[in-house]
Design brief:
The complex is a heterodimer of chains A (about 100) and B (about 525).
Chain A (H helix, E strand, L loop, with lengths): L4 H7 L6 H19 L15 E3 L14 H4 L6 E2 L2 E5 L9
Antiparallel strand pairs in A: 2-3
Chain B lengths: L28 E12 L39 H13 L3 E2 L2 E2 L2 E4 L9 E4 L6 E7 L5 E11 L3 E6 L6 E6 L6 E7 L6 H17 L12 E11 L3 E4 L2 E4 L9 E4 L4 H20 L7 E6 L4 E7 L9 E2 L5 E3 L2 H8 L6 H12 L3 H7 L3 H14 L5 H22 L11 H12 L5 H14 L3 H29 L1 H8 L5 H12 L6 H12 L1
Parallel strand pairs in B: 14-15
Antiparallel strand pairs in B: 1-10, 1-11, 2-6, 3-18, 4-5, 4-17, 6-7, 7-10, 8-9, 11-14, 12-13, 15-16
Helix pairs in contact in B: 2-3, 5-6, 7-8, 7-9, 9-10, 9-11, 11-13, 11-14, 12-13, 13-14
Classes of the chains: A alpha+beta (about 100), B alpha+beta (about 525).
């Protein structure tokens, strides 16, 4: 199985060097190939195994206490005015 | 509920002529529009956790828990009421409701999406294949309505010292229930798109599914627009397909539309922009553009050459939810008469004009106010006349007063009994219409006691009616100049004399009666 690791990295907003691409591509392919083994099993006439629940068992619309703002922002590297502060893109790569 | 009518068969014909408004539409092109509308539904808690919604004006990051923060190991629990509202919306727009709910993960990385995926629905939306009828009679086909969750609110800034761009994130909005309503690409002009968005908003409000305030982001419209050469394409099975070798023009999607009027303006702008591209020999590219309400233009955001790759997969943390038919029937009982049905009834049963019927039914509150007023008036006049009087008064003086204060007539502090009393007193000839209008305005401005005032005027009126002749005689003797003028053939001066009598009776006399008496006496 041939994989476009570059595309996956872009979608995940991760920057990979050419060397990393070369290194990771066969690794990822190997992982997928191991999952491919499952394809060997004939699953005709086997129903997908997913649990069903009833509509009435769903959660009622009653609010509960949320975390405090302090708790919410506890793991943030930067905050401002009660908000999480992020430099650059998703992973704060532009912090400098 | 209405059943599918034969009007829908219109849709099997290729699209009608696009433009009905005064725009420069090229006669060689058809306009093809599809609309995606997102609506935040009115639940107390979020879609997959028990955090309270209602984040407007709240301190940031105070309606947040491990689930809506996307912390590892946190598991979603589905909000029952949210699904009920989604189904209710589906039923209101004549959709089929699926027997199962399947959630999927839609992946993309952005700071406003803490899990790295949005829980949404991909192949099996809860509701599919619906339609609504616009005031113009056009049917808009709805492809699907699915349930998903909102993302966090992000605001973008530049740091003053370092000049670095940064984003501030408030997770209060993260996980608020959101339904997405998607039409088929069957809308053919900007006006219909606007009317469609208006209808959807009305329905959501009528059924208390959402407040659907676009300025607050509770409703968002994203049209996708393309122009295609006439006769070179067709609308088939809900899709636009080319005929022969014709290559379909790509579409643009417009975002950041903050009001219903902007839906129409943005589409009109896009049509012109694409026509100009074609005329100047350029190639239209598939892209996402943003509406700039200050400049009234759309601006390039990103090209769609790198097609979205959301890597959908079934949501493993949420089991399949069975929707028994009995549940759908139970939700169906919440359907009330919707605006298009009201319009039809007002016209058919009560003979209102289409325009009045549309204005009156534009909100549930104003329609209820009208219907209750009609009911009160029908105690003293017949059904149809009551409706016409109620409509005339609401659409006339009451509308004018309400409009001045930027309100709906149901929001004015005129209670129904008072308004009915005024109308009935006017019909009884107790005072003139302009006097009635003045009373309404005073009621709104100073909160005067209308009941008392009307009683007083009725009394005065009965006194006046006995001595109106005396008043007329006094007016004649005090205004000899006008009397002479009238006798010399200047007919208009009788108006002045009527006015004097009206003034003397405090506006309670019937001007026609006064005129008759004057004419008799001046013969």
């Amino acid at each position: 199985m041939k994989m476009d690791i570059k595309h996956i990295a872009e979608l995940s907003r991760i920057k990979l060097t050419e060397d990393e691409l070369k290194e990771f591509t066969p690794q990822m392919e190997e992982i997928l190939a191991s999952v491919d083994i499952l394809k060997e099993k004939d699953t005709t006439n086997i129903l997908p195994m997913k649990e069903h629940i009833t509509f009435d068992s769903l959660r009622d619309d009653n609010p509960k206490t949320s975390l405090s703002q302090k708790e919410v922002l506890k793991n943030c590297k930067h905050t401002e005015n009660g908000c999480a502060k992020i430099y650059g893109d998703v992973f704060g790569s532009d912090e400098g | 509920m209405q059943k599918m009518t034969k009007e829908t068969s219109l849709l099997n014909n290729p699209v009608k002529i696009a433009s009905i408004f005064s725009m420069d539409i090229d006669e060689n092109y058809d306009v093809v529009i599809g609309l995606e509308i997102h609506i935040q539904t009115k639940t107390k808690t979020k879609m997959f956790c028990s955090c309270a919604t209602g984040y407007f004006h709240e301190e940031p990051n105070t309606h947040v828990c491990p689930v809506c923060l996307g912390l590892p190991g946190a598991l979603p629990t589905v909000n029952k009421h949210a699904l009920e509202l989604c189904i209710l919306m589906g039923l209101a727009v004549h959709c089929e409701v699926d027997s199962e709910v399947h959630f999927d993960r839609k992946h993309y990385f952005y700071p406003d999406l803490p899990k790295g995926y949005q829980i949404s629905q991909y192949k099996r939306p809860i509701c599919h294949d619906g339609w609504i009828k616009l005031p113009s009679g056009t049917i808009v086909e709805i492809e699907r309505i699915h349930q998903e969750e909102d993302v966090a609110k992000s605001t973008h800034h530049i740091e003053s010292i370092s000049g670095k761009p940064y984003t501030l994130i408030d997770y209060n909005k993260s996980g608020v229930p959101l339904i997405e309503i998607v039409t088929k690409p069957c809308i053919t002009n900007a006006k219909d798109a606007k009317d469609y968005a208006t209808r959807i908003r009305q329905i959501a409000r009528y059924l208390d599914i959402s407040d659907a305030d676009m300025e607050k982001g509770q409703m968002r419209c994203e049209p996708n627009i393309s122009i295609q050469e006439k006769g070179k394409w067709q609308f088939k099975d809900g899709k636009i397909i080319s005929i022969g070798n014709y290559k379909l023009n790509p579409k643009t999607e417009v975002k950041n539309i903050g009001s219903i009027t902007a839906v129409e303006k943005a589409i009109e702008y896009e049509i012109q922009r694409m026509l100009e591209e074609i005329r100047s020999g350029k190639k239209i590219i598939q892209q996402t553009r943003g509406w700039n309400a200050d400049k009234n233009i759309t601006e390039f955001q990103r090209s769609k050459e790198s097609a979205d790759d959301y890597r959908y997969m079934p949501e493993p943390d949420i089991p399949i939810i069975d929707i028994p038919r009995s549940k759908v029937e139970e939700i169906k009982t919440q359907l009330i008469e919707l605006p298009d049905e009201k319009v039809e009834r007002y016209i058919k049963d009560w003979g209102l004009s289409k325009y009045s019927a549309e204005v009156i039914s534009s909100s549930k509150e104003s329609a209820n106010y009208f219907e209750n007023l009609q009911k009160k008036l029908s105690k003293v006049m017949n059904e149809k006349d009551s409706a016409k009087e109620a409509s005339n008064w609401l659409m006339g003086p009451v509308y004018a007063i309400a409009n001045k204060s930027g309100k709906d007539w149901s929001q004015l502090n005129i209670d129904l009994d008072e308004l009915a009393d005024i109308i009935i007193a006017f019909k009884d000839g107790i005072f003139t219409k302009s006097k009635a209008e003045k009373m309404l305005q005073e009621r709104v401005d100073n909160g005067c006691d209308i009941k008392k005032e009307i009683e007083k005027m009725r009394k005065q009126k009965s006194e006046n009616s006995t001595n109106i002749e005396t008043i007329v005689e006094t007016v004649i003797s005090e205004n000899q100049k006008a009397v002479e003028d009238f006798k010399n053939g200047k007919g208009a001066s009788i108006g002045f004399l009527v006015g004097q009598v009206m003034k003397a009776t405090n506006g309670t006399a019937n001007p026609n009666t006064v005129r008759n008496i004057l004419e008799q006496k001046l013969k």
